[in-house]
Each structure stands twice: as C-alpha cells, then as structure tokens.
Write a structure and sequence with these properties.
The complex is a heterodimer of chains A (242) and B (591). With 242 residues, chain A is mainly alpha-helical. Chain A has 7 helices and 1 strand; from the N terminus they run αβαααααα. Chain A has a domain of 131 residues. Chain B folds into 2 domains: 304 residues, FAD/NAD(P)-binding domain (3-Layer(bba) Sandwich), CATH 3.50.50.60; 207 residues, no CATH class. In chain B, strands 1, 2, 3, 11, 12, 13, 14 and 22 form an 8-stranded mixed sheet that branches. A 6-stranded antiparallel sheet of chain B has the order 8-16-17-18-15-21, covered by helices on one side. Classes of the chains: A mainly alpha (242), B alpha/beta (591).
Chain lengths: 242, 591
C-alpha cells in the first residue's frame, strides 16, 4: 500500500502541531537524558476571563453556584473558582478537542457509539450559554440566568436536565451534562487548575490531596487520616509567614 | 519513496511489555535487534516524577500518557447491520502509546489463567456436552497448556517482583492463597501487599460466607526488590495514583523498572521512538517478511529490513497491521471463513458500591495501590458447576479499590440527585465511608458476530482504513454478570453495608463507558490454521519469520487481567525462537 501524498502531508502537519516536543529519534547505548525534559504543569492565575465574555462568565459562575451551592462549611462553585477553571480549560487544548479524532463524516449514531460532533467544548459552551440566555430572557421577562431566584434557577436546570425544557437550537440536555461534568471536575481537581481554591473541596470530603506516601497508614484501619490536604504546588502552611 | 536502512537481524514493532521482553531475550542470543515505537520514549523522572504525577485531571481525565485518537482510533458498532462510527475520544478502553506501552500505566494485577482456560472448548464440552454452549459461540483451545506456560509465568513474576500468596505449590494447596490456581513451581518472589481497612473487611466477610479469599497478586512491590536482571525497585507507598499514572517511586513493575535500563545498554539493541510502522513488507512469494516500513515525525518514510519480524503492538493494532500488510486471510463472519479479525473479545465488568454508617466506618479510600485487594475465585472459569445456571464462564470477585481520587471517586447513594445542595451533602457524608471498588472481573467468550475488519469509510492520518469493531454482549455474558454480581453483593452486605448499589453489566455494549483496556483476539493462536492466525509458538502460519505477541492471540478472554498471560506467552515464544527457530528458521509447527 502506498500512502497517498496529500493525505499523508495533512496528517503529518496535524501531528506536528499537536504533538508536544516529540520528534523521532534513534536511541541506544544509554538511557536518554535531557535536563528539564519533563513538562511540569502550568499554574492557572486568577484574573480576567480568557475565553468567556463577561456575560458568559457571569452565567457560568451562577451555574457553578447552583451545581455546588455554598453552605456554611464549604464555599460554592463560584467562590471555589470553578468558572475560572472552566474558562481556562476551554481556552486550552480541551476547548477545541485537541487530540480527539475530528475527521468527517459526522453522522448521527446510537447512544452507545458516543458523541459525534465537529464542535469542541468551547463552541458548545458559546452556543449553549447563548441558548440559555435567550430562553431566560423570553421566559422571565428579560431577566438573564444569573438574575433569577435560586428556586427559578433550580427549576430551570432540572427541566433542562430531564429534557422537559428545550434550549433551542442547542442540545440542552447534553450541554447541561457537560457543564455538570466540568464544574464538578474543577471543584475536585488540583487547585493549580483554578478551581478547588484553597483545597476547599478536598477539605470538605477529607481527601489529603497530592501526597505520596501512606506506608505508615495502610494498616491503621478505621482511623481518620489526620493531616490536611496538600496540592501539587504545595500548601499555604509550608510557606513561612511574612 | 522510502529510504532503506541497514538490515537488522530482528525488527520489533512496539516497545511495550512484550516488545521489551522479546528484545531482551533475543539480544541475549547476540542478535542485532531494533525496536520501532509509535510513541515517545518515556521514563520515570521525566514523564511521571513524584513532584507532579499526582494529577488526576492531567493523567486520568485528559489521558496524558495514552494514544491520542487523532493519531489513530477505531470505529465501532454493536451489530453488523449498523454503520460503524469513529471513537472520537476514549471511553470503553484506553489504548497505550509510547515506550513501556500499557506497562507504564497499568494497575499491575498479575494473574495466571486457570489450566482449564487453555483447553476451554474441550473442557466444557467434556463436562457439559457440546449442546450446552450457545450455537454462535466460537471458543476454542489455545494450542498451548498451562503446564507449557508455567515456567514462563514464573519468569515474568520474578522479573516483576510480583507480590502475592501462593495457593498451589507443586500440587499442594497452601493456606491463604488461591486454591483454584494451577500448580506453581515456587512461591511468589515477594510476600503479598498489605491491605487497607476495606480490603481486610472484604476478606473477613468472604471467609465468613465460606469462601477462600486471598490477596490479589500485585506488581506493586510489598518490599524492596532486586530482579534477576539486577534492577532494583522500591517499596510501594500506597499513594493511590497507579492506574492511568506512571509510578514515580519505582514501585510498579513496568518495562521501565524491570527491563529497559538493562536492554538499552546492550550494544546490539536500539530503538526508534515516535516512528509508526505502516506495514510489514513481504517478498514476492508473500510467504516471507523482508522487514517493515515506518514513518517518522517529519513525515519521512523509511524501510527497515530484517530477517525476523516481531509484531508486538497493542492487540488491536497487531490485527490492523496484519490486515494492512495482507498477511493471513481476513475473517468473513457470513461465510465463516478466514482468521484475521476473528474471535475478538473484551471483558464483562460489573460492580457493587457499598454505603456504610459514617460514624462506624472510615475507609480512607485514597490509601491504596493499583493491585491491592482481596479476591475470591470460586466463581471464575469453570471453578463452579454451571449446569443449573445456563451460562459458561465467570470472573473473580474482588474488593480492590485502587484510589480515592475525587473527580471520579465521589460515590453517592443511587437515589441522590446529580448536583445541588443534596448532592454536595451526600458527597461529604459518603466519601470516607463508601466502597466503590468491588468488582466482578468477568470473562467474555468469543462469538461469530463479534470481530474486527477494516472500516469502509473512516481513515487515519496516513489515509489507512481504521479498524472497525463489531461487538455486543451476548446473553451468556449478561447472565453470568447478573449471577456473579448477586454473589458479590452478598459479600458487600456481609461487610456491614447499610445500602448497596448493584451494577451488573448490561447490554448493549457501550463504547463510552470504561470497562478495562483488555481487548483480545483477532489474530488468535491455535492448532489449526483454519481457525487461528498463529501457531502455538505465536508464529504466523502464513509468514514463518513473523511472530505476533500480545492478547490478540487469546481465542477468548478469561475472567482475569491479561498481562501475566500476555507476558508468559512472550517468554514462551522467545524460548521457541531461541531453542528451535534460530537453529532452523522455518515453520515450527507443520499443520
């Protein structure tokens, strides 16, 4: 079989764009070693929205606070930084389906065959949030989602979740599923990604975070692990007080 | 035009577990060996160092160490009447990529199959009669027996430093081990791992119910270990970042920790990484491989000539490369002819969540290793009488919770809403007092309409057809799943759970829900070239200087994790090459 030149070039261009620093190499004689060859994660910084418009950001913060409402012990999704997390994820590789198979044709299949869409999550949010906004303004006399009462927000989200409320032209049900998955992932992911601020989610459940050694604890059965969580970037308690 | 490289004695396609094993064996014969690996070189300090490896989002959710579907993927359908659609992002399984292959990010459950698993068709027919098996079930004997493989299971376990408790030493049943296992010639090289609270409780409950629980055989080190190649591994620290992750602590058996540092220093070994083999080249007779063609990252095409070709990619890619290289007759499910693509299988996983009183139970689910856990084997293979049950096959029943990583492991009782204040409270209340790793590791037997072929529509980035998977669960497997999940539920209840949530596997087969990455078959081994692609030594019936490693050789899947058997087969095949083939290159079995 001969590779068709055109398809082949298209393929290799894609590969070069998407693969990190990987280049083919012939290795022998010793374990290859380059200084700083690893790729440490890049910490999300607070600040203005990177992907969202300010209206979109406000809507996602409102969504985050209904999916994970604040309570006296633990902040809600908004204060935990979940909207920041989603914004930075959508601005990055996840937002535009990097690494996914995006060759056409896109055909509608069965539920078991999985999502078949050319759009990535970034466009799904843009379309879904616009449809949500349009629905709210029509239904609640010009009000937008963040301005609804908590009870109205919850009733609306339950309707979207169950499919009884349609968010035309977006697919409300799968959009809500996606938002749910992302907000909750942001809540529980390492704080370096922008959510789980001060490890509030880990403190809430008793998860000690990015620790690496429980040898002393494996046989201490039915005892509560006493140490507070640490993140990949450390813990506030480790820094000297200034 | 491809550029031709100097000829080698051996070219190996893929440098995962089997490629590393066979490279190490054949370089010991002073052969000049090169491996060609699609993915990058990977090593502990650069790719999964302790200072940032504990990152659930990056490594598990975003699949950092895995093949990317834009490199290549598969199409999938349940039935032959449907149009298969591409898997655009991974779901039911996660194919590996890069040096070390799946050995980098496996849990290291290191099992042997049962002696009866290797003679399955004969065994079941003798015990229950041929009419007991479904008409369209295409199970067959392997052409190799447990006794053939025993020395090679042993080789792999000592290479890895497997931690476990022997259940059958030279025919003597041992206390605390698996009484159903085949006889082993010596104990495991390391004692079993320590167990957490939940694992211990599961073992006690199983014992009280009359079962014989034993610790899961684990490639996570229970103590420091030096393997026969002189490579040293550290004690596992139960960090809870094993499957999907590389081990930063040199505590998990992988090609990186057990073979590669020795192999790469041999002057007669080299590896090309980030280079994808696109076909195995044949001479004009079509009966002899002349080497392989591969493409590097700059798009350059190369030819690597060799006397001996070892196909050691992930199972389903072995099948694809055979088809694209036109080696062996493709399987036709309608005519029931051909072998390449035949007897494709996966796994039938089921599970039970157990919710306990939080004032009395604290499981610390985050303290765990990849292959920790207690297991019973009473309902695996043919260890129990199937005659009143109306199905064959089974699985091990384990509580082997590997982690408490919170993006994926925050279970809530089944009646809880998926979001909102109630959900938040349920997550808070249940995280430490719930077990969510009680599993049925069920077998999946082979069927006439479950197979692999080339997709007629979708192509990879080189313009080659994707592999098309046609797969669905059959009644036999679903019946087994329901029966075994009830048994598992009984043990979880006996542990003292207030509430359990039974999740027996149900059809149709769903490509979006993770089960395991144990894809098997499609180029199966056997005694008859009409129903197998390779002989009992993993040698191609059609091209005798081609050997095909991996789980693509399994005629059907057993109720265990496959790596122990995959590796034992690689050692078995390597021994046949060293002791027989090199002296007299040609077919090792005459059909």
């Amino acid at each position: 079989m001969t590779l068709r030149r055109r398809e082949f070039l298209a393929g290799s261009a894609l590969l070069l764009l998407s693969a990190s620093s990987s280049r083919a190499a012939l290795l022998s004689g010793q374990l290859p070693w380059l200084p700083d060859a690893g790729s440490s994660p890049v910490q999300v910084r607070p600040g203005p929205w990177v992907y969202f418009t300010s209206d979109e950001g406000r809507a996602v913060e409102a969504l985050a606070d209904r999916i994970i409402p604040p309570d006296p012990k633990t902040p809600g999704g908004k204060d935990a930084g979940c909207a920041i997390y989603v914004d930075r994820q959508l601005a990055g590789p996840y937002g535009h389906n990097e690494g996914h198979f995006v060759q056409p044709p896109f055909m509608h299949g069965t539920k078991q065959q999985g999502a078949q869409s050319a759009k990535g999550p970034a466009q799904d949010y843009r379309d879904g949030l616009a449809a949500l906004d349009k629905y709210c303004q029509a239904k609640y006399s010009g009000k937008r989602f963040p301005d609804l009462s908590d009870a109205d927000k919850d009733a609306l989200l339950k309707g979207i979740e169950s499919g009884s409320i349609k968010l035309d032209p977006a697919d409300g049900e799968s959009f809500f599923k996606q938002v749910l998955k992302d907000i909750q992932a942001g809540f529980f992911a390492d704080p370096l990604y922008g959510g789980n601020r001060d490890m509030v989610a880990w403190k809430m459940i008793g998860y000690p975070g990015a620790r690496y050694n429980y040898l002393d604890w494996i046989e201490r059965h039915n005892e509560r692990y006493p140490l507070p969580p640490v993140g990949i970037t450390g813990s506030a308690a480790w820094s000297p007080k200034t | 035009m491809s550029r031709k490289l100097p000829k080698k004695d051996v070219v190996i396609i893929g440098l995962g577990w089997t490629g590393s094993i066979i490279a190490n064996e054949l370089t010991d014969e002073s052969l000049d060996v090169i491996a060609i690996e699609r993915g990058p070189w990977r090593d502990t300090p650069t790719d999964f160092p302790v200072n940032y490896m504990q990152d659930e989002l990056r490594y598990h959710i975003r699949h950092e160490l895995f093949l990317r579907p834009d490199q290549t993927t598969f199409t999938f359908r349940n039935k032959m009447s449907q149009t298969a659609l591409p898997i655009r992002t991974w779901g039911a399984f996660m194919p590996p990529n890069g040096v070390g292959g799946g050995g980098v990010h496996w849990n290291a459950e290191t099992w042997r199959f049962l002696p009866s698993d290797f003679v399955l068709k004969t065994h079941l027919t003798e015990r229950y009669g041929a009419a007991f098996l479904p008409d369209d079930m295409t199970i067959q004997d392997w052409g190799v027996t447990y006794n053939d493989l025993e020395p090679h299971y042993d080789q792999f376990e000592y290479l890895c430093g497997t931690s476990g408790t022997a259940g059958n030493l030279n025919g003597q049943i041992q206390p605390g081990g698996n009484p159903f296992e085949g006889p082993r010639s010596r104990p495991y090289p390391n004692p079993a791992q320590k167990q957490g609270f939940g694992h211990t409780l599961y073992g006690k409950a199983a014992q009280e119910l009359g079962y014989k629980p034993f610790p899961q055989p684990s490639g996570n080190m229970s103590q420091a270990y030096t393997n026969p190649l002189g490579l040293r591994m550290g004690q596992c620290t139960y960090c809870g970042f094993c499957e999907w992750f590389g081990c930063g602590n040199y505590s998990k058996a992988s090609p990186q920790t057990t073979i590669l540092p020795v192999l790469i220093r041999k002057p007669n070994f080299s590896v090309r990484d980030n280079a994808e083999v696109t076909r195995i080249n044949l001479d004009r007779s079509g009966k002899r491989a002349t080497g392989v063609t591969f493409v590097d990252t700059s798009g350059e095409e190369w030819e690597q000539p060799a006397d001996l070709v070892i196909l050691a990619a992930f199972s389903i890619f072995n099948v694809q490369l055979l088809m694209l290289s036109k080696i062996g007759q493709p399987y036709d499910p309608i005519a029931n002819t051909g072998v390449i693509g035949r007897n494709f299988t996966h796994q039938t996983m089921s599970s039970v969540d157990g919710f306990f009183d939080k004032s009395k139970f604290n499981f610390n689910p985050f303290i765990a290793s990849g292959a920790i856990g207690m297991v019973i084997d009473e309902f695996n293979g043919d260890n129990f009488d199937h005659s009143p049950l109306g199905f064959v096959g089974g699985g091990y029943l384990a509580y082997g919770q590997t982690n408490g990583r919170p993006i994926t492991t925050t279970p809530t009782p089944p009646d809880t809403p998926k979001w909102g204040a109630q959900w938040k409270q349920a997550v808070r209340d249940n995280y430490l007092s719930t077990i969510s790793g009680a599993d049925v590791h069920g077998s999946m037997y082979s069927y006439r309409d479950v197979y692999l072929d080339l997709d007629p529509i979708y192509k990879d980035r080189f313009g080659r057809p994707l592999m098309r998977m046609t797969i669905d669960f059959h009644d036999n497997e679903l019946k087994a799943a329901a029966y075994l999940t009830d048994k598992l539920d009984g043990i979880v209840k006996a542990m003292g759970a207030n509430q359990t949530h039974k999740k027996p596997r149900k059809g149709p087969y769903d490509i979006t829900t993770y089960q395991t990455t144990h894809l098997n078959g499609g180029a199966v081994m056997g005694a008859d070239p009409k129903t197998s692609a390779i002989n009992r030594y993993l040698q191609s019936w059609d091209v005798p200087n081609l050997f095909v490693m991996g789980a693509s050789a399994f005629p059907q899947n057993a109720g265990y994790n496959p790596t122990g058997t995959v590796a034992a087969l690689a050692f078995w095949s390597a021994a046949a090459i060293r002791e027989q083939y090199l002296k007299n290159p040609g077919p090792l079995v005459h059909a």
